[in-house]
Design brief:
The protein has 123 residues and is mainly β. It contains no helices and 11 strands.
Length: 123
């Protein structure tokens, strides 16, 4: 069984910073792309940033220059450094990972999601 556990959310003032972490655990054979998405009430989950296993990154236009995604492949962990936070960054942030597991005699590759961590930007 694979689990993604996020941490690092909270309440911060506009202009402040937060660092989110997401660790994948379980019987993992390989982790491919990882990423962060956010969701607000009544809206669909939206991409924030993704990072490939080789380190190639992609960002939503709204966070370019303010957020940085990184990963530690040895720890199966992805990070999101969020600077210059704005009230419209307020959302639940979910971690996503494309993970391959080896079970029995077969490899299975699937998308996994974390439970989400709340980020609130308010004065």
């Amino acid at each position: 069984q694979v689990q993604l556990v996020e941490s690092g959310g909270g309440l911060v003032q506009p202009g402040g910073s937060l660092r989110l972490s997401c660790a994948a655990s379980g019987t993992i054979y390989s982790v491919y792309g990882m990423g962060w998405y956010h969701q607000t009430p009544g809206k669909q989950r939206e991409l924030v940033a993704t990072i490939s296993s080789s380190g190639r990154t992609r960002y939503a236009d709204s966070v370019k220059g303010r957020f940085t995604i990184s990963r530690d492949n040895a720890k199966n962990t992805v990070y999101l450094q969020m600077n210059s936070l704005r009230p419209d960054d307020t959302a639940v942030y979910h971690c996503n990972a494309d993970i391959e597991v080896f079970r029995g005699s077969t490899y299975f590759r699937s998308d996994y999601w974390g439970q989400g961590t709340q980020v609130t930007v308010s004065s």
